[in-house]
Amino acid sequence: MLFAAISALLAVQTPPPASDDIVVTGQRLTADSARRYVTEITRPVDGQLPRFRQPVCPAVIGLPDEHAAALVARVRKVASHVRIPVAPEGCGANLRVIVVDDAPQFMSELKRQKPEFFAGMLNADVDRLMADQGPVRAWTVTQVQNEDGHVFAATKSGQSVFDRASKDRVSSGDEPAGSASNMPRPDGGSGTMRIRSASIIKETTLQAMLDSYVVIESGAVTGKSTTQLADYVTMRAIGGAIPPGKDMVVDTILTLFEDARETPISLRASDLAYLKSLYSGSGTMRGAQQLNRITKAVLKTSPSQGE
Question: Residue 95, SS3?
Answer without folding.
Answer: strand
